[in-house]
Amino acid sequence: MKVSNMNEVYINKIAKFLPNAPVNNDDMETFLGKINDKESKARRIVLRNNGIKTRYYALTEAGVPTHSNAQLTAEAVNGLFDVDFGPQDVELLSCGTSSPDFLMPSHAVMVHGELGNRNLEINSAAGNCCAGMNALKYGYMSVKSGNSKNAVCTGSERMSSWMVADHFSKEVENLRQLEEQPIIGFNKDFLRWMLSDGAGAFLLENEPKGNLSLRIDWMEGYSYAHELDVCMYAGADKTADGTLKSFSDYTSEEWLSKSIFAVKQDTKLLDKYILVKGVESMKNAMDKHGISPADIDYLLPHVSSHYFVDGLYKGFAAAGIEVAREKWFTNLRDVGNVGAGSVYLMLDELVQSGRLVKGQRIMLCVPESARFTYAYAFLTVC
User: Fold this and answer.
1) pLDDT tens, 119-150?
2) Which of 108, 282, 307, 368 has the fewest beta carbons closer than 10 A?
3) How far is CA 231 from CA 98, 128, 236, 265, 370, in A?
4) What is the pTM of this model?
5) Is Acyltransferase there in the keyword field (predicted)?
6) Per DSSP, what are the bridge partners of residue 76?
7) Contact between residue 191 and residue 50 where contact means Cβ atoms under 8 Å apart
């Protein structure tokens, strides 16, 4: 069977949407509220380690939502449109998030509804931080195969509304009634100080346009769920043997009394495996495509915390894939951890910085701690 030539795929436009004004560390509890009317003991420790100074919330200071996830995403997508490419030109919409507004319908359906543009193909990528990269890969494969001439791909989060204090009030009251200390576990409190809201969007096309395009040379993904336990989860709780029990197997009363829908993280598993498997998967991707550190001009690693940066650098060096620190580009300090949207926001900021020169190559590197999944993309500036 004759195999036809594949198209090249280019990121020709990038847009973002960050809701409201940036929120500094001292004002976080103003927006999210205080659990049990007490300041979090974990907050300062977590913030000191993650190095985040400001982030964005789709909330008022009273904790009232200002945007849905679908609205955040649609705002980013609208930023791609101009006189040369409008809403009616989109052939495929591929959206990734770990915080959809609903269990169903899917996130991409709701974004499409917000856009209200035309009949088109959609794809929703679920999961955690890699959801944005999985949405990108679907669009990449569609354009590359000739299924579509263009694709709009997005990564977004609206985690703030999951983290407001009111969602934990029933658990605190339940602990009081059991005469236990009314303090939310660290595995829940930890993430209240880590996560942020926002959305990014890429326009993919089968030919370069404008003054600067980014060709997607390849994308790779790796999962270690076959050997590692769940680390980050929501809508479930861990049992004594480490397995997950779904929200659907709890009573509706337990949903509130145990904060079943809260986002939780097993920090011991995170610390033990996130860097080890990140280094292993990065080396696998580089070896597969014959890439050396010298071939990378910019490394854009999605790190949830600056705590991991030195360890990741040392791990790369020990594995023989050391990428010089001056090549690393992140915006975690100012934008926060926007999960599935972070890599979109990083690449947008790098492009807007004016640093890029044709011929340079960029590595996107996204880990996901949910059950240890990793995604990579290698780009060339055209």
Assistant:
1) 999 999 999 999 999 999 999 999 999 999 99
2) 307
3) 14, 11, 12, 6, 5
4) 0.94
5) yes
6) none
7) no
